[in-house]
Design brief:
2 domains; four-stranded mixed beta sheet; Zincin-like; alpha/beta
Length: about 240
């Protein structure tokens, strides 16, 4: 059994597992984790019992832009960083050896082995993360000064799900995927995290603070919940 509900299926034994776990994993599909001595012939029965949950969760994740196909995505020909108002035409040159990326105005030249797309995709992801820091830091600084809400540091990460977070020390972590989102959604996320420097919770006081600076926050927060649809498969 290599698929279930049209999803690629992986069964993994874990000596630390005490029970069967069924998970949907971005980029990989359906994974079943079982204890070391578990009879894997029982997996189809377990999956059938959880079919309704699997299908509901799949629909919710795919509507949020999560790729569950388990297939390696195609290399992009165009990269659009909506939050920064930048778009790149990507050209590829098949060449053995280490992958190299060169930026020239609105074009990217990627040289590397075309039969090893996983390495090319990783270079494009690292490039995106670096551009995310360049674009998001000025936006965060400008909003911080305008609102009078200070933070201690900013980090850009390549997280699977969360768009951002704020620590008790005022360190704001932002997802590199924000670079693909419309700027109004990015601004809402920045406001969301800066408000956490005053209220490290989601209490009524916190949302009142958010509303004071952005009355339309409910619509924008809902947009962030579905923001995954703007993130291309090669970066998901």
């Amino acid at each position: 059994m290599t698929e279930f509900c049209g999803l690629p299926l992986t069964i993994r034994k874990n000596p630390r597992a005490r029970r069967v776990l069924v998970k949907l994993i971005p980029g990989r599909g359906l994974e079943v984790v079982v204890p070391r001595r578990f009879d894997t012939d029982l997996v189809p029965e377990i999956l059938n019992e959880k079919r309704a949950w699997i299908e509901r969760t799949r629909i919710r994740m795919e509507e949020s832009g999560v790729d569950l196909s388990g297939r390696l995505p195609d290399l992009p020909e165009i990269i659009s960083f909506r939050a920064a108002g930048r778009e790149y035409q990507v050209d590829y040159l098949d060449r053995p050896g280490r992958v190299k990326l060169t930026e020239n105005a609105s074009r990217l030249m990627v040289c590397g082995p075309m039969d090893e797309p996983v390495f090319i995709l990783e270079v494009l992801r690292k490039f995106t993360a670096s551009k995310a820091r360049e674009a998001l830091l000025p936006l965060l600084d400008a909003m911080s000064r305008r609102l009078g809400m200070d933070y201690t540091a900013m980090r850009v990460r390549r997280q699977k799900t969360r768009w951002g977070s704020c620590s008790a020390r005022g360190t704001i972590s932002l997802n590199a995927k924000l670079l693909f989102l419309p700027v109004e959604l990015v601004n809402q996320l920045l406001l969301h995290e800066l408000c956490h420097t005053r209220q490290l919770n989601h209490s009524a006081k916190y949302w009142a603070l958010v509303a004071r600076h952005e009355p339309d926050f409910a619509r924008l927060e809902d947009g962030l919940k579905h923001g995954g649809r703007f993130v291309p498969p090669w970066f998901s």
